[in-house]
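Quick one - inputs below.
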Amino acid sequence: MTTINPVPELVEGRSPGEKSRRWGSFYVAEHRLYAMRAYLQTLLVTGFGNPLLYLFGLGVGLARLVNVPVGGATYLEFVAPALLAASAVTVAGEEFSYPVLMGFKWNPIFFGMNAAPLSGLQIVNGMIISVFVRMFPTVGVYYAFMLIFGAVPRVTGVLDILVATLVGMSVGVMIMAYTATITEDHGQMAIIQRFILMPMFLFSGTFFPITNLPIYLQWIGWISPLWHGTQLGRVLSYGLAEPGWLTLVHVVYLIALAATGWILAARHFTKRLNS
Amino acid sequence: MPEAVITASLLTKKYKDFAAVDGISFEVAPGESFGLLGPNGAGKSTTMRMVGAVSTRTSGDLTILGLDPDLHGPEIRAQLGVVPQADNLDQELRVRDNLIVYGRYFGIPRRQVAKRADELLEFAQLSDRAKSRVDDLSGGMKRRLTIARALVNDPRILLLDEPTTGLDPQARHILWDRLFRLKEQGTTLVLTTHYMDEAEQLCDRLVVVDKGKIMAEGSPAALIKQYSTREVVEVRFGSEKNAKVAKLIKGIGDRIEVLPDRILIYSDNGEAELSEIIKRGLNPITSLVRRSSLEDVFLRLTGRSLIE
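Output:
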């Protein structure tokens, strides 16, 4: 007969659940990263392929056609910080949507985690950590391509990696907070992609300053984390001229959005797991 | 009786006006195998979620391992093993990896969890499927993997919600065998089921639950003794005739239950009652004399059968 030996760690002394309480978020991240290994190849191909294609297409192709300096920068320098931030948003759109819906519905691992000692907040944090582990290098690789293509005139541009990651996370936690409330799938994920992320990509001053838009469309830029991140990135990478207070608004807006999304996500997870 | 590992007193869970669990009280002793038997919707799973410290109670008292789940959820859950009604294995991971990531949730060091995963795979008779995808496992295998996963932290109490629902008979027997071994090793088992044979096989003691309330409590044998006779005669005369025939066999046995498809006659001597029926010139299409079961207890208590 097979006997199952007790786990010494849990039998001796230590208060039950103590390690889980302290490290639970990292255990969740570890789990998610295990799962990401299955599509590591895709991650690598898109991680290296996307910047190459976009920067080549826009920098070598479109930039020649446009060939108009924008606010003291070449078109490639103008567009690169936006593409960098958008690459982080793409990762966020992938990792905080379907995996969250699946975790509650089709592959309900979150309930399993919660039946173990992990809390809703720890699961949210674990998801954030695991996505960070994917997003940060993705953005880093993108930035390296920007350097190769000569799209970053200033040294401070390296901080764009952090800005882009912050943009990705602020959008991501909001998607996660919303997705955690979905009980029936009516294609909400596709709607987010098509009617929120896509317009945000197009109308956030990515390819042209939002002042080129009619005034009644400019609000999309003002509320868009992508616009705030892009403008902040431009200040750092080529010294976009804008009032100091506005730069501060970009930073505060992105942090506030990330914090709000994080609190909402934790609340929605906890509520759903403990109903 | 040693100090109980679970104590519920007037435990209640309401969803708006609906009471899913309506003031139930019970205790579970360490090493005991305790069951909640009742039909679907009786409130068994809701009770299990409260005992599993993932659902807060509306009122009443609940103590698990001496702790209040509302205040000490993670500490309690660290000492439980949970087999939910629907498997929630990670289908994106391989079989062995499922055990490893789950063991990590409890803070078990990597090297140790890998060793434990191998032991548990052997226990669950899944060693040769370690690298399989979860999707490729049969229903019974998935269930055994979920049980193995629930044991990864060496739990003091193992909660099993409908452990064999949806499994074919052979898979059920393999599973029962594994659970029986755990019982022999002294693991405290708490299980819900709507299968009377499962309850009889695995439970030292059980409560019969219906509509959120406890209808009876005791060992399977004691419940049968208290609420039923030793034997039951089942006769079928065809669905249209059953009710008519019921009048003609009045007085036979201790008690008669007329169901849509058959008549049950409760008695301590089934064969004698069956001969009496035949003596009266009534020829049933089929007849069967059997031992009383928990199904009969449930029927007696609620007037309904367990599986509807």
